[in-house]
Design brief:
The chain has a 30-stranded mixed sheet that branches. The chain is mainly beta and 816 residues long. It has two domains: 106 residues, Immunoglobulins (Immunoglobulin-like, Sandwich), CATH 2.60.40; 576 residues, Beta Barrel (Maltoporin, Chain A), CATH 2.40.170. The radius of gyration is 28 Å and the shape is globular. The N terminus and C terminus are likely disordered. It contains three helices and 52 strands.
Length: 816
């Protein structure tokens, strides 16, 4: 807070000397006279980026002041009228003021009950600094989860565990409505797997975000925006959906918004029920490294059946104190449960592939997640020049519980039991509490300069108590001290940033930013008394240069340094078992990884974007397989093992083939190189990869729409694991019904049933092959009804406090 007071005081003298570089005035009329409260948006002519906004007074007059020199377009919106776009105009040193001739708005052309529809959203919208995915614009998104929508988005890939990569690099910072998710690893995956796409409005993909965002996220930021509007009256939608794969699924949601006077209330709720099946096959070869001789072969076959139920909720209120100040509160969270059974068979062969014995395991698990988030936010605009201050305060809590039972039976090749059964049970409660607050200031200066600055503080407490018991010969459960562990972790991050943008002239623009983050953390194992502390300060610079030689071409180059901190539970030496021979374990010696990223981008005509990206990551955190040869067991852990170099070239294009056929094509080639040391031995894995995502949308007569989409990924290096090629093809059809108030959608995901994960990891004494198949071919049918009571809802689009901590929460370690 002290920093922001100093910044604000330093700005005050400068304000008195601020020079108005440009002014735009005008008047908005209709056949009935002046139009009050119309929204005026000032847009850049090059990419339609919003610069400033204004509201007309009782006489329909408006004024936008202190506008930087350049080419612009004005858009004018008012409920019940068609949207208006002005011609392109230019402010320069000679003509710094512009007067728009009085605009007479036309009444909305087509009214559908209470809904006015003026244009259709594009599936993918490409802007200079980000890619926007309009979720509802694609009928193949119906019935999907958020993770599945991400998987088919350009530049994004999802590995065997659901971890998200952007442009070939893992470590993505995921936000919900610009706010922290405070989730990471398996919990991000679990949340996205159970969040239905019905609640989504847009997905924003930012490979190189500015300094105002947390420095976390090795490869960039993905902002998932849920549905919310501020139309007067009562508006909303209801969606009912069902799917059928090997087992049935169901997705249902309700969205509501009510605005009256100075109050805007909004909320949504979704319920999903899914029964899924997964087949996981592992083949492990155990070698005598010195003699270069194969000793034994383990083949494991697991069938996992799970029933998952999830409730997602969100509710909030915005109170408009006056035209300049808004206060809001948002409460959201989820309640998930998952009941699973696993049948696992391990076949052990000698070097001649002769069966020696086998182990049969039957495991049951009951897991539950409860999440509660509350956010208080205040925004105040000092004037129409863009000077504003925002404050966010967040409290987040997570509660996780898991109870598992493992039963192992052992047989020889003749199917005779060779030793007594082994039984292991676990109780794995975990709680996480997060407190976060941030303050941001935006302040324009003379000379076409805008300054953004802010501070943030977050505090995290985690409590993981892993309790394991074994069943003794007297049929009594004994505490297993070797596997059990009670781990406490605390972390504080203090951050401050400053970001400056300057429009040099009509063609050149610059942006420079610097973020400072101080991290203090400590962990304590109550079981063993072991402690550790980390205390470090890091600087994260960002830079951006833009060049617009003409209306058709835009060039940009950007640089950013970022950090990836270990997940909270990855620091905990905590065991999680798949079977007797395979488990995961945490690593308290993990350190953060750092990356430097450079990207050069060219956009042509607003539809074709080409990007060249290079990233170098030091001290990279990645999953590695390790073996205990004496017991023939394999465990997975995270280590700082390597340095990664990544270079990628991508091309994205949105093309109208005909009036009724549009296509979005994304192609990317990248190369990953990993070099490091594992267990004292050198590790070097490298490979070239290619990804393409194609979406074709056909707008037919009488409200029909058809879509054909898919993606393909070649062989890819994912740390110490090499993933074999993978792809998918989806089809969908939708129809507007009930006077266009409702939509029926039918899609078939992976109708060729080709999407599955296959990969391997081979280094030193590690030789493992992985096959992972799941219930992916699913037919989904949904019905969405939109309602509006009060003022008419106008749907129109253009034709063409805490971001890191929640991401790092890992409650569920059930990934292999």
């Amino acid at each position: 807070m002290v920093l922001c007071v100093i910044i604000a005081n330093a700005m005050l003298p400068a304000h008195a000397q601020t020079i108005v570089t440009g002014q735009i005035i005008g008047q908005v009329l209709s056949v009935k006279g002046s139009v009050e409260a119309a929204t005026i948006s000032l847009l850049k002519a090059t990419d339609s980026t919003s610069v400033k906004m204004a509201i007309t007074d009782k006489g329909g007059n408006f004024s936008i002041e202190q506008v930087q020199l350049g080419k612009y377009i004005l858009s004018i919106e008012s409920i019940g009228f068609q949207k208006y776009y002005s011609d392109v105009f230019e402010l320069d040193s000679v003509h710094s003021n512009y007067t728009l001739q009085p605009v007479k708005l036309s009444m909305a052309m087509k009214t559908l009950g209470d809904v006015v529809v003026n244009s259709k959203k594009p599936m993918i919208e490409q802007k200079l600094d980000k890619t926007i995915i309009h979720v509802d614009a694609s009928p193949t998104n119906v019935g999907l989860t958020v993770l599945e929508v991400l998987e088919k988005s350009p530049g994004i890939s999802v590995d065997k565990d659901g971890n998200v990569s952007l442009k070939g690099k893992q470590g993505v910072l995921i936000l919900i409505d610009g706010k922290p998710t405070y989730l990471s690893g398996a919990d991000v995956v679990n949340m996205l797997k159970n969040m239905p796409s019905n609640n989504l409005d847009q997905i924003e993909i930012m490979p190189n975000p500015p300094a105002k965002y947390d420095a976390a996220g090795n490869s960039g930021v993905i902002n998932i925006k849920t549905k919310k509007n501020k139309i007067k009256g009562l508006n909303g939608s209801v969606t009912i959906g069902a799917g059928q794969g090997i087992y049935p699924k169901s997705n249902n949601s309700f969205n509501m918004n009510y605005r009256v006077g100075r109050i805007n209330m909004f909320g949504n709720y979704s319920y999903a029920w899914r029964k899924n099946v997964q087949y996981l096959d592992l083949t492990r070869n155990f070698w005598d490294i010195k003699a270069d001789k194969l000793e034994s072969i383990f083949k494991q076959q697991a069938k996992i059946i799970g029933i998952n139920q999830t409730h997602n909720y969100k509710m909030g209120v915005d109170y408009f104190v006056n035209a300049k100040t808004t206060v809001g509160i948002v409460v959201n969270g989820f309640i998930n449960s998952d009941n699973s059974t696993t049948d696992n068979a391990t076949y052990i062969y000698d070097a001649t592939k002769k069966l020696q014995n086998r182990t049969l395991a039957y495991n049951t698990g009951n897991e539950s997640w409860k999440n509660f988030n509350t956010n208080l936010n205040v925004k105040h605009a000092f004037d129409s020049t863009g000077k504003e201050i925002t404050v966010d305060m967040d409290y987040i809590s997570y509660t996780y519980g898991a109870k598992e039972l493992f039963h192992n039976t052992f047989y020889n090749a003749a199917n005779v039991q060779i030793k007594s059964d082994e039984n292991l049970r676990s109780n794995l409660p975990s709680t996480i509490k997060i407190f976060s607050g941030k303050l941001d200031i935006t302040y324009p200066f003379k000379g076409n300069i805008k300054l953004d600055a802010g501070i943030k503080r977050s505090y995290v407490e985690t409590d993981n108590n892993a309790q394991y018991d074994t069943l003794n010969t007297a049929n009594v459960w004994d505490r297993d001290a070797y596997r059990s562990n009670h781990f406490l972790y605390k972390e504080t991050i203090n951050a401050a940033y400053v970001n400056m943008t300057k429009q040099m002239n009509k063609k050149w623009s610059t942006q420079l930013g610097l973020r400072l983050e101080h991290t203090l953390s400590n962990g304590r194992q109550l079981t063993t008394g072991t402690k550790f502390t980390n205390d470090y300060v890091e600087f994260f610079p960002t830079a951006y240069i833009g060049y617009t030689p003409n209306d058709k071409n835009q060039f940009a180059i950007s640089y950013g340094r970022r950090i990836e901190r270990p997940d909270y539970s990855d620091l905990n030496p905590f065991y999680h078992f798949l079977d007797k021979y395979t488990y995961q374990v945490g690593n308290p010696e993990l350190k953060p990884q750092f990356s430097n990223n450079i990207e050069v981008t060219h956009t042509y005509g607003g539809f074709l974007t080409t990007s060249l990206n290079y990233g170098k990551t030091d001290n990279i955190i990645t999953e590695v397989f390790e073996q205990v040869d004496s017991t023939n067991t394999t465990f997975i852990t995270n280590k700082n093992i390597a340095q990664q170099d990544n270079i990628s070239l991508s091309v994205s294009a949105g093309l109208p083939i005909t009036k009724w056929w549009t296509t979005n094509i994304y192609v990317q080639g990248f190369r990953n190189v990993f070099k490091g040391v594992v267990n004292g031995g050198n590790l070097e894995v490298e490979g070239n990869s290619f990804i393409t995502t194609i979406q074709n949308q056909f707008s037919l007569k009488k409200g029909w729409m058809f879509e054909l989409s898919g993606f393909y990924r070649t062989r890819t290096v994912e740390g110490a694991i090499v993933a074999r090629p993978m792809g998918v093809v989806n089809i969908a059809v939708s129809k507007q019904v009930l006077k266009n108030k409702a939509t029926v959608r039918l899609n078939v995901r992976d109708f060729l049933h080709v999407q599955q994960f296959s990969g391997y990891s081979r280094y030193q004494n590690i030789d493992v092959d992985i096959q992972n198949r799941w219930d992916n071919r699913v037919v989904n049918l949904s019905f969405t009804y939109r309602f509006s009571k009060g003022q008419k809802l106008q749907i129109q689009s253009k034709k063409s406090s805490a971001e890191e901590e929640q991401r790092r929460v890992k409650l569920d370690n059930n990934n292999l």
